[in-house]
Design brief:
70% of the residues lie in helices and 0% in strands. Helix 3 packs antiparallel against helix 6, helix 4 crosses helix 5 and helix 6 runs antiparallel to helix 9. The protein is mainly α. The two termini are 34 Å apart. The protein contains 9 helices and no strands.
Length: 166
Amino acid sequence: MLLIPIQAYIVPLFLLVSKLGILNTYSSIILVAGANVTSVFILTSFFKSIPNELEEAARIDGCQDFGIFARIMLPLCKPAISTVTILMFITNWNNFLWPLIAIRENSLKPLTVGIAQFMGGANSTAQFQYGTSLAGACMAIIPSVIVFLSLQRYFVEGISNTGIKG
């Protein structure tokens, strides 16, 4: 799935979401965004890099599966989770094609689709307004910058810890 672009499987995805009955809702966007192969790949490779001795030591101390996950694995994987959060938020915030196809109501459309519709198309006779559309595009960047700045320290920590072996 990492090698196949969304344009190749957009029709089966549309048919699946329409059969589920969640087409033209926020659930159709969130469901597709949550089923992301990149985040699974990043988190799987990170969890494989954690030594098994930590889990075994916690089991010897009497910790159950959920306790091992909550007390040991989760604090260790903050850099990986922040990386996945940053990448997936920016990817889905800037997503254009799937929301354009899945959402029909103007009140549910995301900002990227709204800006594109505001800019007009070939059938539009209105004069293109650069100032207004570029102001909307600049405002669309603000949430991505906020998410990155709030998770930046974990992101940098994850990058700096990848080269350290101990």
